[in-house]
Design a protein that fits this description.
alpha/beta; Rossmann fold; Dehydroquinate synthase-like, alpha domain; two-stranded antiparallel sheet; 11 strands; binds nicotinamide-adenine-dinucleotide; binds zinc ion
Length: 397
């Protein structure tokens, strides 16, 4: 006989949110943000706006456009304070200080759970502000306006936020569903080339594990993408965003309770390389190298053919990615490549059994639960030889 009495409980909560795509959201007459703010109570929506300082620098007129847009739409929504600048990139996610800052501003400006926090920026600022919004009053409504390719095709769509700690990416964070996401293509016009390219890696990633025809499309569009063709980029983002949303809303585990994280193909090493490079490598650049390593591994365990592997590597290179970085040469005291600590961190982060997403043929996925360090060493060497051969103009090296 058991020594307890159990009273099982169960309930479920429906979540809904929308992705809205537009151009020039803060031009007079653009009603996208009004649609996102749609307010059952009928009162003007109170908003606090946080903007990536890098975006403000690239677009000095943005703050004025935001102020003018809110003035013009004053009967529907109000700015509680002038937009606040947030340090760009990983600096925003350095520690939990951002949470206190957001909480203090919410207190000062009377932001409640029916108000809105609007986060405008790259994935790092969205992650950091998202955590602040999720923890203030146990959750203020969040509208994300992603401003990089990577944030529009991946980071801004998810149901996660986070900041870094103890040398680990996203060590602190919550699962929190945004109220809405607004992809504004005009932000991309001012992106530096590195940031323009970075988000393509996430599209290649999701195509490898979910959609072979999309992967073929990316291969064909690679030259246009590399030369900043906006039409091609908008299509890349649209398809990638929908694949991510389809996964989040339809795959049955939006809050990653299981040990599988299929959208993180290529990421176990990418997260480690970002940290090991002290964020010299941006997320997308690290993901491109992580994908390359995992493609070698997938070919070695016969999940894809070497021809399929090489075709995807060609696509990544045609988009302008460099598929090697010196951090891969770092070794721990025991002689193992330091990047391998990413495997253990990945397992700990998910909890339970090691689960790595791998392609099962291109366009499909099947998880693996064992990882062979020796085989990985072979893969690292193969990748290095390929990149060196390409640099020295050796075809098929
Ligand atoms: N929450 C998630 O599900 C998720 C998913 C993927 C990635 N991420 C996170 O996203 C982050 C990477 O995001 P990212 O690639 O967008 O880079 P980022 O946020 O680091 O931004 C890169 C740089 O671009 C600048 N920038 C942003 N928009 C600009 C614009 N329109 N014009 C000019 N400059 C602009 C920023 O100021 C910054 O200097 C990482 O921290 C990663 O861990 C989160
Ligand atoms: Zn990623």
């Amino acid at each position: 006989m058991s020594s307890y009495t159990s009273y099982p409980q169960q309930f479920s909560v429906d979540f809904s949110f929308q992705l809205l795509c537009t151009r020039d959201a803060f031009q007079p007459g653009n009603d996208t943000l009004l649609e996102a703010l749609a307010h059952p109570a009928g009162r003007p929506a109170r908003c606090l706006v946080f903007v990536d300082a890098g975006v403000l620098k690239a677009d000095p007129g943005l703050e004025q456009r935001i102020l003018r847009w809110f003035t013009a739409n004053g009967s529907d929504c109000q700015l509680a304070a002038s937009p606040e600048a947030i340090a760009p990139g990983e600096a925003a996610k350095r520690d939990l200080a951002i949470v206190e800052r957001i909480g203090a501003l919410c207190l000062e400006h009377g932001i409640c759970r029916h108000s809105y926090i609007i986060a405008i920026g790259g994935g790092a600022v969205l992650d950091a502000v998202g955590l602040g919004a999720a923890l203030t009053h146990r959750g203020v409504r969040l509208i994300r306006m992603p401003t990089t390719v990577l944030a529009q095709d991946d980071a801004g769509l998810g149901v996660k936020n986070g900041v870094n700690a103890f040398g680990n990416k996203n060590f602190f964070g919550t699962f929190a569903v945004p109220h809405a996401i607004i992809n504004d293509s005009a932000f991309l016009d001012r992106l530096p080339q590195r940031e323009w390219r970075a988000g393509i890696a996430e599209a290649v990633k999701v195509a490898i594990i979910k959609d072979r025809s999309y992967l073929a499309w990316i291969a064909g569009a690679a030259p246009a993408l590399a030369s900043r063709d906006s039409e091609a980029m908008n299509e890349l983002i649209r398809r990638c965003a929908l694949l991510h949303l389809e996964h989040i809303t339809g795959a049955g585990d939006p809050f990653e309770r299981g040990s599988s994280r299929p959208l993180d193909f290529g990421h176990w090493s990418a997260h480690r390389m970002e940290v090991l490079s002290k964020h010299r490598l941006n997320h997308g650049e690290a993901v491109a190298i992580g994908i390359a390593l995992d493609l070698f591994y997938a070919a070695a365990i016969k999940r894809i053919s070497t021809e399929e592997r090489d075709a995807v590597l060609d696509t990544l290179e045609a988009c302008g990615f460099h598929l090697w970085d010196e951090v891969l040469e770092l070794r721990s005291r025991d002689g193992k490549r330091t990047v391998l600590t990413g495997i253990e961190q990945f397992r700990e982060h998910l909890g339970g059994e090691l689960t790595l997403a791998m392609p099962d043929g291109l366009g499909q996925r099947a998880d693996i639960h064992d990882f062979d360090d020796g085989l990985f060493e072979v893969c690292v060497r193969q990748l290095r030889s390929r990149v060196r051969a390409a640099r020295h103009g050796v075809v098929g090296g």
